[in-house]
Amino acid sequence: MSAATSPAPDVTNREPLRTAVTSRFLRVCAWISFVLNTLIIATGGAVRLTGSGLGCPNWPLCAPGSLVPTEELSYHSLIEFGNRTISGPLLIAALLVAIASWRLRGQRRDLPVISTVVLGLVLLQALIGGIIVWLHLNANLVGIHYIISLALVCITAAYLARMYEAPGPRESVAPKGFTILTHITTFVMAITVVFGVLTTGSGPHSGDATIQRDGVDAGLMSHIHAWPGYAALALTLALLVWAASRRLRPLRWTIALLAVLVVQILIGVYQARNGLPELAVGVHMVLAALTAATMTIVVLRLKRPALVS
């Protein structure tokens, strides 16, 4: 009998679940880190969609001899510089979370590792952002830049999920078949994201009017991008039916996943049929990250902190 259908475990001779040991300061910083990693996708999208990618033609300075935009630069420089400005608080938040997490390493091993990965990726993002400016918005590097940002949203979401749960070993609470289907859904969503990035790389929003795209047919890529998206929707519906019928632990987050995925698909269809309006494309970019983050939580809900014998 699977863990999901077995009777409630006998806890007569077991200790209660160990509680989380995180401080309020750490929780606030972790939420700020998640929000800023999501926000920088929105501002990065604004840079690209308004053609402001080279608004600050240099990096780390905005213009020769000036860290901030000069009067000679256009409003594009303000948009680009605004995106850069978020990097500072984002780095500070990641650093504070990492320091606070390492102070808990005696009680927890998961949070220090996750926070260190986040800090490393934030530093990598800053470097890649500079290289992108130096290489005049290379489409492939811009795509990698976005994927790392999306991964950061997922990892910071995972940190939040683990932060509120007890430390120590975890045990599976879902049938093996449901777990396998969840991972298949995750894989299909990852493919959807990759093709979405390639589709954007072939579309009209290059970040600057002088930048040439990668030459791939944008119409064809939009169809290829849609196929795994619809497959992910079907798989998510299957997960929801299964989770609801067996009252599985991931049920509530699977409902959230379906909701955000449906909105994401509707916006995708709208933008494809209306000439890729900038606002719709920007919302689509942010929702892709939030969809992936929700999928991450669904995966984490396949297990729970184990009872201590």
From TrEMBL:
Annotated pathway: Porphyrin-containing compound metabolism
UniProt keyword Amino-acid biosynthesis present: no
Localization (cell): Membrane
Topology versus the membrane: Multi-pass membrane protein
Transmembrane segments: 28-49, 86-104, 116-137, 143-161, 173-198, 224-243, 255-273, 279-300
Keywords attached to this entry: Cell membrane, Disulfide bond, Heme biosynthesis, Iron, Membrane, Metal-binding, Oxidoreductase, Transmembrane, Transmembrane helix
Name this polypeptide is given: COX15/CtaA family protein
Species in which this protein is naturally found: Leucobacter rhizosphaerae
